[in-house]
Design a protein that fits this description.
- The protein is about 15% helix and about 35% strand.
- The strands form five sheets. A four-stranded antiparallel β-sheet has the order 4-3-6-7, with no helix packed on it. Strands 10-11-15-13 form a four-stranded antiparallel β-sheet, with no helix packed on it.
- It is globular, with a radius of gyration of 20 Å.
Length: about 325
């Protein structure tokens, strides 16, 4: 590229001088942000689904795709968007979306043809696997369920089955939950999607080399009105003396889906512990479901760390 085009693209230019493109997508999908905190919350959900989709698309098409360009790893200044981890070394929604998509043995939904695929990035073939898919409406009414036995070769992809197209009686926003189990019944991969019966529609006629406008965004605005639920969480310190670590158990104790559950560790004074390495974060919990998540961080805080948990539709608990 000419150097002036490179600088214009990376430094701001006409199209990237502000948050207008990102904000348009965020508010088109999730509704208008009510403030900075709501904007940050929605930005993490948008980053999660966007980063996950990019790496999942490459994984499913590994034999025809030439690669992925990831932009960007971290922010060079405080920002709420466009990073895997931010200026403060805090991993965001995009980090965990990418992390999920890149696990060695992975189950995923295909946005283009609605197929459920198992991606094996290891050098060992896998047999005796079982894929289970469930589709729920906004109130967690089950709309579809299917299981299938699958085998997948080394460094290969297997499509298990295809989800049905949405019916007119489905809620505009709906959910897909996937679980992959091995021959012993152990869970080896899980995934959770929030989708819309009103899919994205791109304006291909106005495509530029760097950007294709969206004529209509998927309608996910009902997520802002999910029924409330409650969480409980506990932290058990690890035994390492050289590095801080521990295990967090979080449970959805309420009657509704807990969407985008976010865990955070703080020191006894209430300051967030950073950098931090979570095994998982920004996940969903069905009513009564429990998740155990490991966490580690450099050094040892003065005193026992505390865990906080929150979701879009659950108040922060400490």
């Amino acid at each position: 590229w000419p150097i002036d085009e490179v600088w214009r693209y990376h430094a701001g230019g006409d199209e990237f001088k502000d948050l207008s493109l990102f904000t348009g997508a965020l508010e088109g999908r999730y509704g208008k942000a009510t403030g900075a905190e709501d904007y940050a919350r929605k930005a993490q959900a948008l980053a999660y689904e966007g980063q996950r989709a990019m790496f999942e698309a490459f994984g499913r098409n590994k034999y025809v795709a030439t690669g992925v360009i990831q932009w960007m790893l971290n922010n060079a200044w405080p920002s709420m968007i466009w990073h895997l981890y931010d200026w403060y070394l805090r991993p965001g929604g995009g980090y965990f979306g990418a992390k999920a998509a890149c696990e060695p043995l992975h189950v995923q939904f295909s946005y283009d043809d609605r197929s459920i695929a198992v991606v094996n990035d290891t050098l060992q073939p896998r047999s005796g696997l079982t894929v289970a898919a469930k589709v729920f409406d906004l109130n967690l009414k089950e709309l579809f369920a299917r299981e299938a036995a699958v085998e997948v070769g080394a460094d290969a992809v297997t499509r298990a089955f295809t989800l049905p197209a949405p019916s007119p009686d489905w809620s505009t926003t709906y959910f897909v939950r996937l679980v992959l189990r091995d021959a012993a019944g152990r869970e080896v991969s899980r995934n959770f999607y929030w989708l819309s019966t009103e899919e994205d529609r791109l304006d291909w006629a106005k495509t530029e080399w760097y950007y294709t406008p969206t004529a209509r965004h998927a309608n996910l605005r009902a997520l802002a009105s999910l029924p409330p639920t409650t969480l409980e969480a506990s932290f058990t310190p690890g035994e390492s003396a050289a590095e801080g670590s521990g295990r967090v158990v979080v449970r959805n104790t309420g009657p509704a889906l807990a969407f985008q559950v976010r865990l955070k560790l703080t020191d006894p004074a209430g300051e967030e512990i950073l950098p931090v390495y979570w095994a998982d974060n920004y996940f969903a919990l069905l009513p009564g479901e429990t998740r155990e998540v490991t966490v580690s961080f450099p050094g040892q805080p003065a005193g026992r760390p505390r865990v906080t948990a929150e979701a879009w539709n659950a108040d922060t608990i400490r």
